[in-house]
Specification:
four-stranded parallel beta sheet, 303 residues, Rossmann fold, alpha/beta, binds phosphoric acid mono(formamide)ester, five-stranded parallel beta sheet, globular, single chain, 2 domains
Length: 303
């Protein structure tokens, strides 16, 4: 089986661009190998006796469960930390929590409201820190997404990935991973909701026309219009995102064998039609499963 890359040991992942193309490739290759081992029920206890702390300041299903099960399958243990108990930044500073937790565990996964909280945590932690979603980035999702695309499509370099909707955390990380791996990426977002990195390059482009973006695409990806914490601006956003839903008609602009992707949870009838989400081109539950395999490779590489 592929060995974790030595240069990754002890590192943090706050965003995709923390890693080089070669490092991402090594994590993805290990993830494919670990998935095969898991399916064959072969032992792969690469983290025997290691512990991961999980701090989730926002709701989660996939992230929490896949990290916990992943540590178990690798022979280690995951400790769920209740944010209401540690009250990071109130009862104790982020720096002190980071330094304390680092004395007990071999790595920390954090989901936080603000990306800078994870940055501050990582500056003081003495063990690897993994971003389990912030307002700006969702790197673990992007790793699982590429794993899923690789399972469905043979050649990454000739692909066109089209993201339609809110230029949010999921979009930022997908854009970054496509950029680093050299995959052609186009985002169609309403004006004012473009991703953080708006600099065009050979492989990355932007438009506000979903049909133009979807034209000839191999992958159509969307995410919720109202991310966690944005509930107060729901009314305004629903107006501004009219015309940005993924419908059968939009899917028909893409290649005939295009797949539909969504990080989940999804809102049927808003960002995606029920028939697309439940259709035969939808790979959304493969993406959910691949969170497990991608993160196990990440954990085995960093911890
Ligand atoms: N996609 C994703 O991160 O799901 P959860 O919010 O359920 O963890
Ligand atoms: N953009 C969404 C992703 C959820 C996994 C959010 O931040 O709520």
């Amino acid at each position: 089986m592929e060995k974790p890359l030595e240069s990754l040991r002890g590192r943090d992942i706050l965003r995709i661009t923390d890693f080089s193309r070669q490092e991402l490739r090594s994590i993805l290759d290990l993830a494919h190998a670990l998935k095969r081992k898991q399916k064959a029920r072969e032992a792969h206890r690469l983290l025997e006796g290691r512990a991961l702390a999980m701090i989730l300041e926002k709701p989660s299903s996939r992230t929490r469960i896949s990290f916990e099960v992943g540590m178990f399958q690798l022979g280690g243990h995951a400790v769920m930390i209740n944010p209401a108990e540690i009250r990071m930044g109130e009862r104790e500073s982020v720096a002190d929590v980071a330094r304390t937790i680092s004395r007990y565990v071999d790595g920390v996964m954090i989901r936080s409201n603000y990306h800078w909280t994870i940055e501050e945590f990582s500056q003081h932690a003495t063990v690897p820190v993994i971003n389990g979603l912030s307002d700006h980035h969702h790197p673990c999702q992007a790793l699982a997404d590429i794993l899923t695309i690789e399972e469905r499509k043979s050649n990454l370099t000739n692909l066109k990935v089209c993201y339609v909707g809110d230029g949010n955390n999921v979009c930022n990380s997908l854009l970054e991973i496509c950029g680093v791996l050299g995959i052609s990426f186009v985002a169609a977002c309403p004006t004012g909701y473009e991703p953080l990195l708006r600099r065009k390059s050979k492989a990355i482009s932007f438009t506000s026309d979903p049909r133009e973006a979807a034209d000839g695409a191999d992958v159509i990806y969307t995410d919720v219009w109202i991310s966690m914490g944005q509930e107060s601006i729901t009314g305004r956003k629903l107006q501004e995102f009219l015309g940005f839903a993924v419908t059968p008609e939009l899917m028909s602009c893409a290649k005939p064998d295009a797949i539909f992707m969504h990080c989940l949870p999804a809102h049927r009838g808003l960002e995606v039609d029920e028939s697309v989400l439940e259709g035969e081109d939808s790979v959304v539950f493969d993406q959910a499963e691949n969170r497990l395999h991608a993160q196990k490779a990440l954990l085995a590489s960093l911890l």
